[in-house]
Amino acid sequence: MKLYKVYLFDFDYTLADSSRGIVMCFRNVLERHQHTGITDDEIKRTIGKTLQESFSILTGITDADTLEAYKKEYVKEADVHMTVNTFLFPETEEVLTRLKTCGAKIGIISTKYRYRIMELLSKKLPSNFLDIIVGGEDVKEPKPSPEGVLLAIKELGCNKEEVLYIGDSIVDAETAQAAQVDFAGVLHGATTREELSAYSHVEIMKSLSEL
């Protein structure tokens, strides 16, 4: 794989495993509203989508006000449970450090709130280690809209040809496609190699170490 000048990463299931916290928060909200029979795997399959989309998929609810209310309840749950139940993948710190040593710029594009990402990474990485973090509160349209990636490209002053976007899900593959940047998939999450391979990619990796 060629060396890029900019590496933009998804967060959940790409750099970190937050599935324990995510499942816990979803389950607390779902059970509070008597939504039963939903498996952990079904919840994990929605990781990467917006909270409203995820709740709609899991419950069948389409009413915008109800979905917004569930989102707000989830955020309150996440304030308590998310960071303590999120762990970087074993290779994450080493890979990011090596990329920085090679002179690359590093960023994160996520539907997760920026402050939540920073809360976790502040305990793991030096301050100002990342060149940019674009969270869900920083864009008008969530992934797979290219807005977040294009914002990072503009802020970092680079060309699309110099950028690799790395993610674990179909949403990430579609985001890279919409932004017209190269995509590399990583098989940390619930999405299969076959599902990711259906999209244009430079690599489908078992772990970030292959970067």
Give, in order, the helices and strands. Answer: EEHHHHEHEHEHEHEHE
| Strand composition percent | 5-15%
Largest sheet: 6 strands, parallel
CATH class of the largest domain: Alpha Beta
User: Pairing-aware structural class of the strands and helices?
Assistant: alpha/beta
Indicate the CATH topology of the largest domain: Rossmann fold
- CATH homolog superfamily of the largest domain: HAD superfamily/HAD-like
End-to-end separation in angstroms reads 7 Å
Q: Give me the count of strands.
A: 8
Which descriptor suits the 3D outline? globular
Indicate the topology.
Elements: E1 6-9, E2 16-17, H1 19-32, H2 40-44, H3 51-59, H4 64-81, E3 87-88, H5 92-101, E4 105-109, H6 114-121, E5 132-134, H7 147-156, E6 163-167, H8 170-179, E7 182-186, H9 193-197, E8 203-205
Helix pairs in contact: 1-4, 3-4
Family: Belongs to the HAD-like hydrolase superfamily. CbbY/CbbZ/Gph/YieH family.
GO molecular function, one term: phosphoglycolate phosphatase activity
Enzyme class: hydrolase
